[in-house]
Every structure is written in C-alpha cells, then in structure tokens.
Specification:
five-stranded parallel sheet, alpha/beta, globular, 20 helices, Helicase, Ruva Protein, domain 3, Rossmann fold, 4 domains
C-alpha cells in the first residue's frame, strides 16, 4: 500500500458557515489534502466514526455546542489527533481555552489561507501529543484586550507558555501592558496559587539591587538591622517579574545569570544555599540586542532570558483595538463609582486618529478623565479632542484628576520598594503628603502667576504658612512672573 506524504493528509473541517467551508476546503484540496466537511458537532461525530482524520479543523460556536468543549472529548478517544481551532471570538480567553483543551493550534478569523495551509502542514509533520485539561470558562475580567492580528499573535504565544515554566521576555514601548502579559502568564499557569512578585529594576538604587533580589542577613551592610527576604524568596513557587531588565547594572546581571544557570542563590551576607523555585518573566522597553552590542547588557544573560520572546505592539499599530479598549476603560470607571458614559462614533474616530505616544496607559488615563469630567452621559468628539490636547471641558477645570488614585498607589509601591518598613512604621501619611506638597504648591504658584497670597488661598493655607513651606521645601520663587496686585 503506498505511503501518504507526511505533509498531505485527511482533513476534517467543521464550520457552520457554508462560504467558509467552501473556500477553506478548496484551498486545502489545492494543497493536495483529502478534505471532508461538517456543519455541526453531530456531523463531526458521524465523520469521526466513519474514519478518523489526520487533522481536525473546528470552529468554536456551532449550532449544537462549543467546538473547544468538544475538542477535549475528541482527544480522549484520539489523543494524537492535531486539532486546529478557528474562531471569530478573538480573545486571550479563547486562545487559552483552546490550548488547555489540547488543541494543536488556534487561528483567529479572518485568517490568511496560506497561514492555515501552513498550520495544517505543520500539524501533519509534528503530530504532537496534546494535553486534555478541562476547559476554563470565559473570564471577562482578563486584562489583555484586543482583536487585532498583532494581539492575536500575543495571545497564541501566551497560550503556549502557560502550561510550562519557560522563561519569557516581553518587549514593547512604555505603556503597552508588559506587566499585564506577565500577570496573564502567571494567572493562567500552574503557579497561579503562589505569589506573583514584580520588581522594577529602574526604580532601585544600584547598591541595593542584589539585596532586593536575593535578600540580606542581619548585619550584612550598614542599616541591615534584621534579615530580609528578597524577591526570589518572596516569589517561591510563583512568578518573579523582572521589569525594565535593560536598566539592571552590569554587576547585578552577572549575579542574576549565575542564579538562572544554577537555580540557586544565597542572600547578601549569607552562606546557606536557597533553591530558586520561580518562573522568570522579564520585560524591557529597550532594544536589548543593541544594549548587548554596546556592552551594556550581557549577551549570555540575554539568551537566558529570551527563551520565549513576546513583542507587544504599540497602540498606534493596533488602532482597530482602540474603541474596544476605550469602552472597557469607561466600564471600569463606572465600576469604580463614576457615572456610566458612552462614546459616539465621531469620538471614536478622534481616538483612533491619535498616535498615543503613551500607548494603552495614556488611553486609560484619557478615558478615566473623560468619565470624571464630562457633564453628558454621551461623550462627543469635541470633549475627546480637548482632553487629548491637555485641556478639559469649559467650567470644569477645578475638578480632580481621576488619575490621582493611581499616582498615590504608585508612590506607595515605590516607597515600599525603597524601604519596606515605610508601610509599618507610622510614617506613610507624612511621606505621601510630603511627596504631594511640592508639586501642589508649585502648580498653584504657576496658576496664579507667582502671587503667593492667591496661591495660599487656593490651597487653603494662610500666607505666612505658605512662605514657611516654601522655605522648608526650598522652592525658588525669584524666577516666577511678577505677582499681580492683591487688590
């Protein structure tokens, strides 16, 4: 009996759309495959009973059930059958569900026929053994949003790495959501019951990085009054997220490389070896290959981290996702207690035309500001233009910036990184107020042309108190514009 070519085989295509079945079947037959089709799960089962295919292609939403649910059942009887899921539900949840059900691959609709043909060929060549983990229900709270082709590729990579502990390097501009990717990998993987511990390399003084990562013993250095566990210990069993890894000093890179190679570390000033039971996800907004070429980043560490690369696209390269993201942020603002708002079509056009240099983070801030400041329930193009341009609707410039809560949280996180005792020693209120005081005074002085009396009234201080605070904070008022008369 003649042997069939490993790149040509029997394909069963399941989709309730006649036009999709016709077009896909024609493309696969032109590639030499023997193609049968079905329009429902009942027809799929009938075809499987007659003759099992070499590859199964299935839609998710079918008239009599869910194709991903059924894929898991099919794999119980045919564990080596490669299943490729085709879906118009182009979300991270769908990609992860397909992976957990044991699917070989996931292709979002609309897909390129050449891409589909290559996926079928690869499935025939590899014949992978697949997992049969039960399906996890859709979770609308998952943080990654977008149906653009660029985000679909991100979802596919995430879906493939959640079931293993491979090191992941997430790259992308600031504000693209690198930490969200890291959290998704953690929350959807086998370590989700253990801690997710982030550390920002750019926010830690060079001399403290090793102590932050690996911990220190009492007396290891001046000020080390007690033993402190480092981030590797805090993340034991879970995920350690090394944010802005490109800003890590070269000497600390050497120590990190040894830990990644050996899987063990010691605390600063300690002698006992501790096993590093963590998954590493690193992130950077820098070009690490260029940093390697310039001698700022170790080449061997780069290859240790870049096992699975995930490149996050800037928002300007996924404009089709902007409307969905904007509405999501308005929904979150409503859940936080602000009045529910909607966007009209012209407002969406303005959002999609903007280049968003601050990426998704900038869009979120704009939408929260609009949710707080817009008088109408329906947000129009004029308000969006004013907000993006740094202005706000007339008569509402005294309302609070809705991003202040995020700013305070960021201050607390930074203080905790710099000095973990700051959250427990009773100094937190004074520290936060101290950090906010200078920009508040400077902003009010600028707003009132340097007039200290008017600035004091706006802040709620008397003039003498303001002068004392100016002296204490070292704020120079000599270069400000002349104050108008007090009259």
């Amino acid at each position: 009996m003649p042997q069939r070519s490993p790149t040509v085989g029997r394909v069963l295509l399941v989709d309730d759309d006649d036009s999709i079945r016709t077009v896909v079947a024609h493309a696969l037959r032109r590639a030499g495959h023997d193609v049968r089709t079905a329009a429902s799960l009942v027809e799929l089962d009938r075809e499987m009973r007659q003759s099992a295919p070499d590859v199964l292609l299935t839609d998710v939403v079918l008239p009599d059930g869910d194709g991903i649910d059924h894929a898991a059942a099919v794999l119980r009887d045919h564990p080596t059958l490669p299943i490729i899921v085709l879906s118009a539900r182009n979300t991270l949840t769908t990609a992860v569900r397909a992976n957990e059900a044991g699917a070989y691959d996931y292709l979002p609709k609309p897909f390129d026929l050449d891409t589909l043909t290559r996926a079928v060929t690869a499935a025939l060549e590899r014949r992978i053994g697949a997992s049969t983990q039960p399906e996890e229900a859709d979770d609308p709270s998952l943080p990654l949003i977008g149906r653009s082709p660029a985000m679909q590729e991100v979802y596919r990579v995430i879906a493939r790495v959640v079931s293993n502990d491979l090191t992941v390097l997430v790259s992308g501009e600031s504000g693209t959501g690198k930490e969200l990717v890291a959290r998704a990998i953690h929350d959807l993987g086998g370590r989700k019951a253990a801690p997710f511990v982030p550390i920002n390399m750019a926010a830690i003084p060079r001399e403290l990085i090793e102590a932050e990562l690996f911990g220190h013993e009492r007396g290891a250095f001046t000020g080390a009054a007690q033993r402190n566990a480092g981030r590797f210990e805090q993340a034991a069993g879970g995920t350690l997220f090394l944010d802005e890894i490109g800003d890590m000093p070269i000497e600390a890179q050497t120590r990190l490389l040894r830990v990644l190679q050996s899987g063990e570390f010691t605390t600063v000033g300690g002698a006992r070896t501790i096993r590093a039971d963590v998954r590493i996800v690193a992130a950077t907004n820098r070009d690490l290959q260029q940093a390697v070429a310039s001698g700022q980043f170790r080449e061997d560490l780069y290859y240790r981290l870049n096992v699975v690369p995930i490149a996050l696209p800037p928002l300007r390269d996924r404009r089709g996702d902007i409307a969905e993201l904007a509405r999501h942020f308005l929904d979150r603002a409503a859940e936080a207690g602000l009045k529910r708002k909607t966007l009209d079509a012209a407002a969406v056009d303005v959002l999609e035309a903007h280049d968003w240099p601050g990426n998704v983070r900038e869009l979120e801030n704009v939408m929260r500001r609009l949710a707080a400041l817009s008088r109408d329930d329906h947000i129009g193009a004029t308000e969006v233009r004013a907000t993006i341009g740094g202005g706000m609707p007339a008569g509402q410039d005294a309302l609070p910036d809705p991003g202040i809560d995020a700013a305070v949280r960021a201050m607390i996180e930074r203080l905790a990184r710099q000095d973990p005792r700051a959250l427990d020693d009773g100094s937190l209120y004074a520290r936060i107020i101290g950090e906010a005081e200078r920009p508040l005074i400077e902003a009010m002085l600028a707003r009132h042309g340097g007039n200290q009396l008017r600035a004091a009234r706006a802040i709620g201080l008397n003039r003498n108190t303001l002068r004392k605070r100016l002296d204490m904070l070292g704020i120079d008022t000599t270069t400000r514009p002349p104050a108008p008369a007090d009259g």
